[in-house]
Write a structure and sequence with these properties.
The complex is a heterodimer of chains A (494) and B (350). With 494 residues, chain A is α/β, with parallel strands linked by helices. Helices cover 38% and strands 22% of the residues of chain A. In chain A, α1 packs across α13 and α5 packs parallel to α6. The two termini of chain A are 38 Å apart. Chain B is an alpha/beta fold and 350 residues long. Helix content of chain B is 31%, strand content 33%. In chain B, the strands form 2 sheets. In chain B, strands 1, 2, 3, 4, 5, 6, 7, 8 and 9 form a 9-stranded mixed beta sheet that branches. An 8-stranded mixed beta sheet of chain B has the order 11-12-13-10-14-15-16-17. Classes of the chains: A alpha/beta (494), B alpha/beta (350). At the A-B interface, β9 and β16 of A face α3 of B.
Chain lengths: 494, 350
């Protein structure tokens, strides 16, 4: 159980607060995982009273909480939520915030512990942190703590990430900084380490001797919705690959840590990031495919192309799909390609990691090895979190006929309990001072260093690789299929 | 499974975007009484609402023997542009115990000009990592959906039901080239003659009977009036396996040359009865006659050699119901090289 604290959310009138943060805190309260002495302060520009803020959040919890809304619980939980109106750049607002937090400490016995959640655009980070420091909120009093959670995007390239890290680290120490990647809060992402290191049957096979290749896919049927301007400046590579997918890759590829403390785990993840083979312009041309969705159909409904989306340039060169072939240059993963793809407006939503093992010799079954088919271990990050293993089995009958079958483990049905939302776990960890599931500065900067080479090949190259078009509702551009076909492989079917 | 769902019907109507969620709910309501099973994705394409009901029954029958996620795709041209969806499940008691084994069926009706959305909807409802078998009921239309073709592992169809097999095969061949598909063609019209071919082949396990093939003079095949294409595929099989070269048509008969340069005459006769009711091979060294009586479940095979020795055998003729043919087809697996050779050899006869 974490210590009592005040949670301050900057950007409290934003979508994340309503859809994720408050429902997550409410669910933690419902499960009895929150300290009784906890208060939440929403910091935002709009004029609002505590009461109206609570009312809006109550509705949001009713809609987005996995546990639904219990009036009695809400009464007690809602009473501990407050609204603080201020401009982000107004020092007076921070002075009032400091006073208010001191008062809450006194009223609710929250012990002077503060968790600041920056749910704002990165351009606001510097100003907010500077003001927090100016009023001394970054420094906890004796025996208490002060921490900051930073939402992605953490920079747009290596220099901007270094600059942001510099700003954050002048105000908060690295161990007080929690860079959130909600993928890491998902139960199955956390289970990757358990699967690998708590089961003796997998780890001996987890290397180049037995694994043919690994595929990591993050697919979603949604388009950019209202996020056109953000997406225009980001694109799929920066929005998803630099953070979520490289984090998953690290968990799959890392060596066993010496223990499960935050720094031991993150040390191993950083080694993977450092081992990513850098890409030259030629490598990018041959190993990376970028695509953009054109008009098509999703779930039977016609949808517009990316360039026709609201507040998106009609000549946009922003990628909504990326497929990459990566290499982790260390002993374990020598010559094992990692194929990573992410895309919008794909037929199905889901994030999955597939470990494809090498084929068993088919000689006993009068077949070549490929005809027998490989074992595939699939780790489903979302939705329907779970794990499946494809094995080959004999079909009943006189003849020896080999067919693939799937052994399936679903978190939902096996444990009879819905997995907590990622934000629940991450907020709880941040309150408890456990940074294992948060990205460290060197991880983030290492990932940017790798991604920047691709961005440069796309945008600072007189002959950049083509941006391939794919119809909405398809599984991406044909060039992405060709990326695997030329290695004699294919994207798995989700 | 909720008993309110009639397994012969299309099931519970659902919104297109909510299928996974509704299926999940369906299993949650079940309370662990049943086991969801799936070995393949079986997509069934048909035209017309009535045909969807008939194919639901076919799926129900099929799932008793082979677990799958069935995706029924109905197309109704000329209506408003709409797509409807239903979910259902087919359950039966497993052989091993008391637990029910259930297979999901998702049905879609594409109306009007919505056919081009079939691939997207199919892709978004596949059971991951399992092969996709597409059962195509009826005729192919130009152009076929190349995106869809590229995803199919086995394309199951029945060339017996086609009005013009020659043009249908040409269309199929052309579309496979265009889509660069490596799917396996599974013709139920070929499966239909499986037991007959097996029975005939067995006769030559005995080395003494091989002389009938070496000196083959005539092959007479009797087929039901609508099953000429079945008989032609059988002729193609003989031609491919015996390396015969087509020479000419002679009325309703076909003349081939064997590798020794001798003529072999194939004659086809339409007779009421089973798809192939008789096949008789004659040579200078003997004859083999295979016959199936109207209601019989077996082939009666008579091998007559020139020294007046006669051997009689009774061999299973199989069941030609569509669900059984599909099960035979799926159970057999393989790339169907023998079929492709037979098809190539019979093209000239179509």
């Amino acid at each position: 159980m974490p210590q009592p604290c005040n949670v301050v959310i900057f950007g409290a009138s934003g979508d994340l607060t309503y859809r994720k943060l408050i429902p997550a805190l409410y669910n933690l309260a419902a499960d009895g995982d929150l300290p009784a002495a906890l208060s939440v302060v929403g910091f935002a520009r709009r004029e609002k009273s505590d009461e109206s803020f609570r009312k809006e959040l109550q509705e949001a919890v009713g809609k987005f909480s996995r546990q639904g809304l219990n009036d009695e619980l809400w009464k007690s939980f809602g009473e501990r939520i407050f609204y603080h109106q201020s401009e982000f750049g107004d020092l007076e607002g921070y002075k009032r915030l400091a006073e208010r937090l001191n008062q809450l400490d006194a009223d609710h016995n929250t012990g002077g512990n503060r968790l600041f959640y920056l749910s704002v655009a990165p351009s606001e980070f510097g100003g907010i942190l500077e003001k927090l420091a100016a009023v001394g909120l970054n420094k906890a009093r004796e025996g208490a703590w002060s921490r900051v959670i930073v939402e992605k995007p953490f920079g747009t390239d290596l220099p901007s990430a270094q600059k942001l890290n510099g700003i954050v680290n002048t105000v908060f120490r690295e161990k007080e900084t929690y860079r959130i990647d909600h993928f890491l809060g998902k139960e199955t992402a956390q289970n990757i380490m358990v699967l690998r290191f708590a089961n003796s049957i997998f780890e001996p096979l987890w290397n180049h001797r037995y694994i043919d290749h690994i595929q990591i896919t993050a697919a979603e049927p949604l388009g950019v919705e209202a996020r056109g301007p953000y997406y225009e400046s980001s694109g799929a590579l920066r929005d998803m690959v630099q953070n979520h997918l490289l984090q998953l890759l690290c968990l799959v590829a890392m060596e066993p840590p010496t223990d499960l403390t935050a720094d031991s785990v993150r040390d191993e993840k950083v080694k993977v990031v450092r081992a990513l083979r850098p890409m030259s312009t030629e490598d990018v041309a041959s190993n990376v495919v970028r695509g953009q969705y054109a008009a098509g159909a999703i779930n039977g409904k016609e949808v517009i192309g990316y360039r026709a989306e609201e507040r998106v340039s009609t000549e946009s060169m922003t990628e909504t799909y990326v497929a990459l072939k990566l290499h982790v240059d260390n002993w374990r993963w020598a010559d094992v390609p990692f194929y990573v793809r992410v895309g919008k407006r794909l037929p199905k939503g889901g994030t999955e990691i597939a470990i494809q093992f090498k084929n068993a010799p088919g000689v006993l079954f009068n077949k070549d090895a490929a005809a027998v088919g490989p074992n595939v271990l699939v780790i489903r990050i979302q939705p329907d979190e779970g794990i499946s293993l494809r094995i080959q089995a004999k079909r009943p009958g006189a003849a020896v006929r080999v067919e693939p079958v799937k052994m399936d483990f679903h978190y939902g049905t096996s444990f009879g309990k819905a997995s907590p939302e990622a934000y629940e776990r991450l907020l709880l960890d941040a309150m408890s001072g456990d940074a294992t599931l948060f990205a460290r500065r060197d991880e983030v900067e290492g990932a940017w260093k790798f991604i920047d080479l691709i961005e440069e090949a796309w945008h600072q190259n007189p002959t950049p690789p083509a941006l391939c078009e794919y119809p909405a509702g398809s599984w991406g551009p044909a060039e992405a299929d060709a990326l695997l076909e030329r290695d004699g492989r294919a994207w798995r079917r989700m | 499974m909720p008993v309110t769902i009639d397994p012969t019907a299309l099931g519970m109507p659902v919104e297109l975007g909510q299928i996974s969620r509704e299926l999940k709910k369906l299993w949650e309501q079940d309370g662990g009484v049943s086991t969801r099973a799936s070995l393949i994705n079986l997509a069934v394409y048909c035209e017309g609402v009535e045909s969807m009901r008939a194919n639901t029954e076919l799926i129900m029958e099929f799932t008793h023997e082979h677990a799958c996620r069935a995706i029924l795709i109905g197309y109704e041209p000329g209506s408003e542009n709409q797509i409807h969806a239903w979910i259902n499940a087919h359950c039966h008691l497993s052989r091993a115990g008391a637990k029910q084994v259930c297979c999901e069926q998702i049905s879609f009706l594409f109306e009007g000009d919505t056919k081009k959305r079939i691939a997207n909807i199919l892709f978004s409802n596949l059971d991951s990592d399992l092969p996709l078998y597409l059962l195509w009921r009826g005729e192919f239309h130009d152009p076929v959906d190349e995106q869809l073709w590229a995803w199919v592992d086995r394309l199951i169809f029945d060339s017996q039901s086609w009005r013009d097999p020659k043009s249908q095969f040409a269309l199929l061949k052309d579309s496979l080239v265009r889509s660069k598909s490596r799917l396996t063609l599974c013709d139920l019209n070929w499966t239909r003659s499986l037991h007959l071919r097996q029975a005939l082949a067995q006769m030559f396990d005995h080395a003494e009977n091989l002389s009938v093939l070496d000196n083959l003079k005539t092959v007479a095949i009797a087929h039901a009036p609508n099953f000429r294409s079945t008989a032609l595929l059988l002729v193609g099989w003989f031609a491919a396996q015996l390396k015969l070269v087509f020479v000419k048509n002679e009325g309703s008969a076909f003349v081939y040359l064997n590798p020794h340069g001798n003529e072999v005459l194939f004659s086809l006769t339409a007779e009421e009865g089973r798809s192939i009711s008789r096949c008789e091979l004659t040579s200078d060294t003997g004859s083999i006659r295979l016959q199936r009586d109207g209601a019989g479940d077996f082939f009666r095979v008579e091998v007559r050699l020139t020294d007046n020795r006669v051997y009689n055998h009774l061999l299973p003729a199989g069941i030609n119901a569509t669900a059984t043919l599909i099960l035979e087809e799926i159970g057999g697996g393989g790339q169907h090289k023998v079929y492709l050779n037979a098809l190539a050899a019979s093209e000239v006869l179509l």
